[in-house]
Amino acid sequence: MSFQFLENSSEEADIYEQTVIKIVMLGQCGTGKTSIVNRFVKDQFDPEIKTTVGANFFLRSINVDGLNFCIRLWDTSGQERFNSLTPLYYRNSNIAILVYDIKDITSLEKVKYWIKEIHNNVKIMPFIVIVGNKMDQYDEKVDLKTLNLAKSVTEQIGADIMHTSAKTGEGITEMFENITRKVIKNRSKNVMQKVDSDITEKPMPEIKKVGKTETEKKTKCC
Ligand SMILES: Nc1nc2c(ncn2[C@@H]2O[C@H](COP(=O)(O)OP(=O)(O)OP(=O)(O)O)[C@@H](O)[C@H]2O)c(=O)[nH]1
Ligand SMILES: [Mg+2]
Hints:
The protein is α/β, with parallel strands linked by helices. 32% of the residues lie in helices and 27% in strands. It is globular, with a radius of gyration of 16 Å.
């Protein structure tokens, strides 16, 4: 597990002054959670990216409709051996982004799993957003069934659905802007708080700079 901060220290200082939106990324191994975060935070895509070990923490500021927000992201591992740690990250979140792979219908099972899991373990449900990633590979003939199934899961729980490609960047900024608007609309003490009271959260694992993600070989994924 590691904490990752922006390289630019003045930007880092600024975001402590802003209102924080706490987001957790959940989903099956290999669906592209870390790639989505990397595209959003660093505007990068690494086709050789390694599987996440435990969870990594990211901060980024975002300006939506003229207002500044601090997005605080926990990117969790999809590996089952880390599932027991995951409540630490989703319990305190405003938004849970559940990522599925549009090329892999079985990744929707994990989406359903996390919906149940969160529902059973929190007092106040975060907003759930289901994100179908890898849209650059979308082929209607093959993938429409998966998309329709994802839509029906989404409708059943009254969540939002969005589609992205971490590879091309399609839909990534829009997705984070939309979920920020969603939180603003439902502003309350429960869903928003200042980052300075929040950042002291314990336990405090080692701090690393962006780009030195604690990872292991992709072959060990799931
Ligand atoms: N074509 C394409 N490949 C993607 C996209 N997003 C991620 N990938 C690839 O999918 C694989 C898995 O991506 P990760 O970001 O590591 O997935 P993850 O969900 O973080 O996986 P874990 O950390 O193991 O849970 C990598 O080979 C990525 O390069 C995308 O939008 N399009
Ligand atoms: Mg990852």
